[in-house]
Design a protein that fits this description.
Layout lengths: L3 H6 L7 H31 L8 H32 L9 H23 L2
């Protein structure tokens, strides 16, 4: 039997259920984002023809899949930290994975764009 729910409930007091539900919806949004990143990486590898630079398609696909894995792994931690903060009436923690995720996706998207343009010249 898992002990983390009991440890969570032993801390502070129950927040307004609306806030807990909002926290859960945010968790699910992170999970959807992670699934989309993994699907994008798999799709890039499976359906995009070889790029101008050999092996780069696989690297970009792996980066997308690994970003999805990291996002998924961080989603529960983010949910738990936010729930604890609400129970203890502390400020919510910032989403530490968000800057890495947004810049990482931008870099991969830019690389794919440049490679597609170069391939069509």
């Amino acid at each position: 039997m898992s002990r983390w729910p009991a440890r969570l409930r032993d801390t502070g007091e129950d927040p307004d259920p609306r806030f807990s539900f909002a926290n859960e919806r945010t968790f699910l949004a992170w999970i959807r984002t992670s699934l989309a990143l993994m699907a994008g990486g798999i799709g890039l590898e499976a359906f995009v023809p070889p790029l101008v630079v050999p092996g780069l398609r696989q690297v970009l696909a792996a980066l997308l899949v690994l970003s999805g894995v990291a996002t998924s792994a961080m989603a529960f931690r983010r949910w738990l930290r936010s729930e604890q903060a609400m129970r203890e009436r502390r400020p919510l923690p910032p989403p530490t994975v968000a800057p890495w995720l947004s810049y990482g996706v931008a870099v991969v998207a830019l690389a794919v764009f440049v490679l597609v343009v170069v391939a069509n010249l």
